[in-house]
Write a structure and sequence with these properties.
By secondary structure, the chain is α+β, with helices and mostly antiparallel strands. About 45% of the residues lie in helices and about 25% in strands.
Length: about 190
């Protein structure tokens, strides 16, 4: 497939950066990415200091789920994650059984067989974050798919960082409203 790189970057960046809600960002970008890259699902995950992956949000053909579900990694996966921490390229896992991280995710998400594209996102804090795309079946991804995803690494990093901050502000706002209501009732 011959893809106009500028059009791809601009159109996806508009989808990714036009909202502060994680679920909207993932849904809009997933719908758009599927035109260029095989995708049955996409996820935004953060690795906590203890090595547990916190799955923040997932989108599939069925819709968007806000998770905040921990996915514990096996010792082999933790070792692999440390080795991949500084990787700037998009990682391609076309046979999940050969990679401990994709194997852990496939088991946790009840996906029998899938290929994965994973890009480490740039965040200001020390917790690594990643955006992953999966497609059912093996050997679904090529270096061209990885190249396209690598083009939008920075817009995804910015948008998802902003969305997490927005979500935190919303949480504090709700807490503040609740406390104000309690004070008012006293």
């Amino acid at each position: 497939m011959n893809v106009d790189a500028n059009h791809f970057f601009q159109s996806l960046t508009l989808k990714v950066c036009s909202n502060l809600k994680i679920e909207t960002i993932l849904f809009e970008s997933f719908s758009h990415l599927r035109k260029y890259i095989p995708a049955d699902g996409m996820a935004f995950d953060i690795t906590e200091p203890d090595g547990t992956v916190l799955s923040i949000a997932r989108v599939t053909l069925k819709g968007v789920e806000i998770y905040d579900v921990p996915i514990p990694l096996s010792p082999d996966s933790l070792k692999e994650a440390k080795e991949n921490k500084g990787v700037k390229d998009v990682l391609i896992f076309n046979a999940p059984d050969l990679n401990p991280i994709s194997k852990d995710f496939a088991n946790r998400l009840n996906i029998a067989e899938a290929s994965y594209l994973v890009v480490n996102l740039i965040f200001e804090d020390e917790w690594p974050a990643s955006l992953s795309i999966h497609s059912l079946g093996q050997n679904r991804y090529t270096s061209e798919h990885a190249r396209l995803l690598s083009m939008v690494k920075e817009p995804f990093s910015i948008a998802l960082s902003n969305a997490l901050k927005y979500r935190e502000v919303q949480k504090y706002s709700e807490k503040n409203k609740k406390e104000n209501n309690e004070l008012y009732q006293e």
